[in-house]
Amino acid sequence: xxxxxxxxxxxxxxxxxxxxxxxxxxxxxxxxxxxxxxxxxxxxxxxxxxxxxxxxxxxxxxxxxxxxxxxxxxxxxxxxxxxxxxxxxxxxxxxxxxxxxxxxxxxxxxxxxxxxxxxxxxxxxxxxxxxxxxxxxxxxxxxxxxxxxxxxxxxxxxxxxxxxxxxxxxxxxxxxxxxxxxxxxxxxxxxxxxxxxxxxxxxxxxxxxxxxxxxxxxxxxxxxxxxxxxxxxxxxxxxxxxxxxxxxxxxxxxx
Length: 255
Prior knowledge:
Number of strands: 7
Largest sheet: 7 strands, mixed
CATH superfamily: Vaccinia Virus protein VP39
Number of helices: 8
Distance between the termini: 50 Å
CATH class: Alpha Beta
Number of domains: 1
Structural class: alpha/beta
CATH topology: Rossmann fold
Order of helices and strands: HHHEEHEHEHEHHEE
Shape: globular
Helix content: 40-55%
Radius of gyration: 18 Å
């Protein structure tokens, strides 16, 4: 008999997120009244930030059993970190390899948590959170993040949550120096038929409340961003029954 996909953990996270969305709506409604209804993104940002901050200790512990710490330690020079959340990766960087880290996310609710964590690990002078997306070139340019200026771009489970993966990856490719590294650990659509169907069934609730998509073909969008020196070195997880199957690697932009 075929083994069923493991959906217990995703369902738990969806339910937890529902509760955070309800709490965020109540808090916003108490402060702003009926105008809250006209600002769903504000409620969503607050709820997702609370969710990711709450689960951060458990998620960090899980990631520490994976390739993630090794990937983070490869980051060097001027680094652009996409979607840092509450700062889960700050402790993983090799400070001796870091010139500066620009961490960007359009959700501005993470600033205080990130600042506290950066200070705890003595990276406050080398780490800056910028509340914007990678497409906000005017904002980034003012901070010194320009085309061909980054040695490393780090993306850990971020491309599942952006609006347009292709657009984000095109910007990432532009910002990397020739020979620069795109370091990533992402999840995407399963290659197992039953698991892929399960992902499609869960995805409306997952994307609505957790904030990312289960069934994107992220590898194809990464590879389509430009010319990479080593596209054959992308690793693919071997669990066909995970609804969050991982891909990862360190891609080098062609010089």
